[in-house]
Amino acid sequence: MQTKKSKKSTKDSNGDGCWLLSGSMPLTFGCIAVFALLVRVIVSLNSYSGAGDAPKYGDYEAQRHWMEITLNIPAKKWYQNSTVNDLTYWGLDYPPLTAYQGYAHALFLHYFHPDSVALITSRGHESPKGKLLMRWTVLSSDVLIFFAAAIYFVIVYYANRGKNKQQHMAWHLALILLGPCLIIIDHGHFQYNCISLGLTIGAVAAILSKNELVACALFSLALNHKQMSAYFAPAFFSHLFGKCLRHRNPLSRVLQLGLSVLGTFILIWWPYLYSVDAVKEVLSRLAPFERGIYEDYVANFWCTTSVLIKWKRLFPTPSLRLFSLSATLFGVLPSMVQQIKAPSDLGFLYALLNSSLSFYLFSFQVHEKSILLPLLPATLLALEEPLLFRWLTYFALLSMFPLLCRDRLILPYVTLLILFVLIYYIPSIISTKKHESSSTGLKKLVMILVLLCSFFLHIVYVTLQPPQKYPFLFEAVIMLLSCSQFVTIAFYSNLKQWMLESSIWMETEKKVQ
C-alpha cells in the first residue's frame, strides 16, 4: 500500500501533475509568496513618480503628504482647505479609508523618522531613510491584504474542481501575485492599489464561497478606499440582486445585504456624519469634474476619439458628464441583465471584467493606471480565458509605457514582462490551457502583426524624437493601438458572458436556500 501511494505521488509530480505542486500545497504557496515579495523588493529599488521633480513631485509625494496631513490635523479637517492643509498641493481626493490608511502609515514613519511627516516642513521630503520606510508601507500592505486575498481566492476557486484543474492552483496564484502591472505601479511608480484590489479579491472569493454578507462588507471597504472600485459595482449589484430574486425570502435577503453595506459605510464615514455639509465636503473631493473628461493620453474612448472629435472644445463639462454617464451605463447594461437573469459564479467573473472595462473606456476622468481594475478580473479568469488574460496584460503594460518611461522604470518594465511570459508559458501548464490551440491562421497572423507593431512602438518611443509639430505623436499611437485591443476584448467578453454553457445557466435557476 505504501509503495503504491509513493508511486502515485511520483506520477503526480513528474507526469500529469505540475512541478510547482510536487511539494505540499502550503509550502508551494509559501515559496510563490516569498518569490513575489522578493520581486517587489527589487522593483522598489528603482525610481518612482516625481522623483526629484520639484515643486509638486508626483504620486510618491502625494501619498507622503497625506500621511503628513492625517497625522498632524484632526480627521474632521482632512478634506478642508486651510493654511496648514492647502488642497491645491496634493489635497486628499480619495475616500476616508485611504485617509485612515495614511494615518496608520504616518504613525509608523513618525516613530522611525519624524522629519519625513513633519507638518509643512516635510514637503518634498526624499531622504533615503524616508524612502525606505515609504516602500515598506506598500510592501506590508501588499502582503497583509493582497497576498492573503489572492490565496483565499485560489483556495475557494479550486475547491470544487476536478483533480486535473487543481494542479493549476500554484500557476494561477503565481500569475495573480506576479502580475507585472500592479507590481510596477505600486512598487515602482508608487501607489497603494494593492489594498483596494485586495479587498475586491476578498469580496469575490467570499461570493464564490457563498458568504455574501462578508462580500458586501469587503467590497464596501474597497469602495471606501478608492472610489474607482465602483468600476466593479454593477457586477456586484446585479449578481447579488439576481441571487436575491431566487432566495426563499428575497426581501429579507436584500435587507440583510443592504444592512451590511450601510453598516460598513457608517463605520468608515463616522467622523463626517455630524453634518450634511461635512459629507458634501468630502464628496466634492472625490469627483474632480473640473479636471475634464480625460487627462494625458489614456487609452479609453474619449481620449482616443479626441483625435477626430475635440470633445473638450466642442462640449461643456455638464454635457460631457452626461455623455460619459450614458455611455458607461449602456456599456454595463448587457452584463448586468445577464447576471440578474441567470447569476452564476463564472458569469460573475465575466461581469466584473465587462463592468470595469466599460468604466475604463467610457467613464469620466480615467487615468492610465485605471487599467489595473479590468485587469484584476481578467487575472481571476486566467484559467478560463488564458489568451484574453495574456493579451490584456500585455496591452495594459503598453498603455502605461509612456508614464513608466517618465518615471524611469524601463528596466523593471522589461524585466517584469519577461518574468510574466516565463510564468505564463510553464510547459506542463500551457499544453492544457483552453483556447490556445483554437486560433485560426488569420487570427494568429493578425495577432503577430499587432505584437510586431507594439514592439516597434517601444523601440521608437525610447530612441526617436517626435516631430516638433506633433510632440505627443508616439503617445497617441500607443493610445490608439491599446484602446483598439481593449474595445475588442470588451466585445468578446460581453459576448462570452451571454454564451455561457447551458449547464451553468440551468444550475443558477435553482432556488438559493
UniProtKB/TrEMBL annotation:
<feature type="transmembrane region" description="Helical">
    <location>
        <begin position="470"/>
        <end position="492"/>
    </location>
</feature>
<feature type="transmembrane region" description="Helical">
    <location>
        <begin position="196"/>
        <end position="223"/>
    </location>
</feature>
<comment type="pathway">
    <text>Protein modification; protein glycosylation.</text>
</comment>
<feature type="transmembrane region" description="Helical">
    <location>
        <begin position="170"/>
        <end position="190"/>
    </location>
</feature>
<feature type="transmembrane region" description="Helical">
    <location>
        <begin position="322"/>
        <end position="340"/>
    </location>
</feature>
<comment type="similarity">
    <text>Belongs to the ALG6/ALG8 glucosyltransferase family.</text>
</comment>
<keyword id="KW-0328">Glycosyltransferase</keyword>
<keyword id="KW-1133">Transmembrane helix</keyword>
<protein>
    <recommendedName>
        <fullName>Alpha-1,3-glucosyltransferase</fullName>
        <ecNumber>2.4.1.-</ecNumber>
    </recommendedName>
</protein>
<feature type="transmembrane region" description="Helical">
    <location>
        <begin position="346"/>
        <end position="366"/>
    </location>
</feature>
<feature type="transmembrane region" description="Helical">
    <location>
        <begin position="387"/>
        <end position="404"/>
    </location>
</feature>
<feature type="transmembrane region" description="Helical">
    <location>
        <begin position="410"/>
        <end position="430"/>
    </location>
</feature>
<dbReference type="GO" id="GO:0042281">
    <property type="term" value="F:dolichyl pyrophosphate Man9GlcNAc2 alpha-1,3-glucosyltransferase activity"/>
</dbReference>
<keyword id="KW-0472">Membrane</keyword>
<keyword id="KW-0812">Transmembrane</keyword>
<dbReference type="GO" id="GO:0005789">
    <property type="term" value="C:endoplasmic reticulum membrane"/>
</dbReference>
<dbReference type="Pfam" id="PF03155">
    <property type="entry name" value="Alg6_Alg8"/>
</dbReference>
<keyword id="KW-0808">Transferase</keyword>
<dbReference type="InterPro" id="IPR004856">
    <property type="entry name" value="Glyco_trans_ALG6/ALG8"/>
</dbReference>
<feature type="transmembrane region" description="Helical">
    <location>
        <begin position="20"/>
        <end position="43"/>
    </location>
</feature>
<feature type="transmembrane region" description="Helical">
    <location>
        <begin position="442"/>
        <end position="464"/>
    </location>
</feature>
<feature type="transmembrane region" description="Helical">
    <location>
        <begin position="254"/>
        <end position="272"/>
    </location>
</feature>
<keyword id="KW-0256">Endoplasmic reticulum</keyword>
<feature type="transmembrane region" description="Helical">
    <location>
        <begin position="136"/>
        <end position="158"/>
    </location>
</feature>
